[in-house]
Amino acid sequence: MADDLTLSVTVVYAPQPRQVCEITLQVPPGSTATDALRQSGVLVSLAAEEIAALELGIWGRKVPGNQVLRTHDRVELYRPLTVDPKVARRERFARQGAKGKGAGLFANRRAGAKAGY
User: Fold this and answer.
1) TM segments (predicted)?
2) Ranges of each domain in the chain
3) Where are the alpha helices (DSSP H) in the chain?
4) Per-residue model confidence as pLDDT tens digits over 88-109
5) Does the pTM of the predicted model rise above 0.70?
6) For residues 71 and 47, is the Cβ–Cβ distance under 8 A?
């Protein structure tokens, strides 16, 4: 009967690339996303300007801090992007790029195969 009194939610934050902090919490019904963040303690190690730059989401969708949580919600903190993904892709292609004959997905075709296979 303890499950009726609390909701199980997960708070996820990536402070740096390739590093993820995931904390599972039990919160009372009616708790908001901000309440879960405070209870998780993730914000304690961050400076005020870092906290102001963060975005909040649940399961990959941005939500306001007053969003009421449901059981098994995944509260996520999003850092601001340092590089535009489109620019990063262009730069990566320029480095790897079309180096001579055969670049791309279908570069290594079998002899006699149809185009695109």
Assistant:
1) none
2) 2-78
3) 2-5, 33-40, 48-53, 85-96
4) 888 888 777 655 555 565 566 6
5) no
6) no
